[in-house]
Amino acid sequence: MADAMEMMILSILGPQLHCEWRLPSWEVAFITSVVFIGMMLSSSLWGNISDKYGRKMGLTLCMVWTLYYGLLSAFAPVYGWILVLRGLVGFGIGGAPQSVTLYSEFLPSKSRATCIMLIEIFWALGAVFEVLLAMLVMPTLGWRWLLAFSTAPLVVFAALCFWLPESARYDVLAGNTLKAMTTLKRIAANNRMEMPKGRLIADRQDERGKIKDLLTPEYRRTTILLWFIWFANAFAYYGLVLLTTELFQAGDICGVHATKAKVEPSCSLECSYLTLDDYKDLLWTTLAEFPGLFITLWVIDRIGRRKTMVICFVAFSVCILPLYACIGRIPLTIFIFIARASITGGWQAAYVYTPEVYPTMTRAVGIGTSSGLARVGALLTPFVAQVLLRSSVYLTLSVYCVCSLLAAVATWFLPIETAGRGLQESSRLNNQHQQTAHTPGPQTHTPGPPTASQANYGTRADPSGPETQPTTSYGNWEGP
Questions:
Q1: Engineered SS bond to 385: which of 129, 136, 243, 442, CB 3.0-4.6 Å?
Q2: Could you tell me the maximum CA-CA distance found in the chain, to the nearest angstrom?
Q3: What H or E segment, with its residue span, contains residue 427?
């Protein structure tokens, strides 16, 4: 929610500072881009920290960082300071995707997609809340109070983060068996279930969180395709958010054409504040994220992660095509509504797919690097949606349409479908499980630690006899 609010504020802050500080369009675009520069530089770093020192540690640090500099940015006296402080806010937001890493590691495979998609509803709520907050605050108190109030969810997180549990999967790989058992017992108690008999054997791995592990032969193709998919998602999503504000201020596509001829260097300081009607239309298009999430939630387990993303990318491109015509404000709002629902659903499907495809030892850095590439797309998109738009509406729309279609092709060629697939711990463990899965003799199956590990069992040969013992996805569960 905090992440969405900090992102949504960019489309509101830009037009306000453009008028209040008399900024040219390229400086307005750079306010947005500097946030994404910070996110791009920090995403892999936060992923590395989360893989090495724990998901809870990485997530807490990045959110406290964002809170601190988010409040300071409300006091920025001049343009230079707003750039520096918003860039530091972006540096902190770069760690927000680690919340998905932590959350996904507590979920069984049968309900993982549903739970991750449902938690992403708070992204949509954050975006809607930011627009509503702007409608109330901007006309009376101004943008500084809006920046301050937008940190409210971060204040709540900072006050309650000590209750956040560490991932049991991480603790197993880090060799912290006792902490993992404590977490699992807490899960069992909350679900009113008993722990299985036996003990958890940790398979400690000190080599965690290295980017080079994402480019091994097993994951190289998946990683490169995912990087582009995340890039295209952010490029299209944030481009549409910024494009919405520009098109609504112009009235329609024709309005952009009519004002294009007036854009001269001396006239680039001309501005118009967002009106109440602009905020209402922005709210309607923001509400599009909810149907996008719910539709994706309904199809993602039925047709798989890859097909879901392909459909979303293609639907986005199809909704961009009518914008080439000189359509009015109502049809414009409808097509932008559907396009935003589509790209929102596609991005959330990528959030489900990415932690599922990587093992625990590289899961955080996998999401972190993917998020970093997404920020490259978000970094570039203001210069298309806010600057290139002034030169050519058709070229601007073509860039987004082609990028989305290329992402659909990239998604189609992903080598792994993760629907129904348990979370992997490491490539080494996966190979061991594959080798021991054919051990002769009867196999037993006993209930594992509830909720967080029920779905992911393999088998491990027991040296004392031909029978195999159940293996949980946290490590090896040795029976009595």
A1: 243
A2: 84
A3: helix 427-436
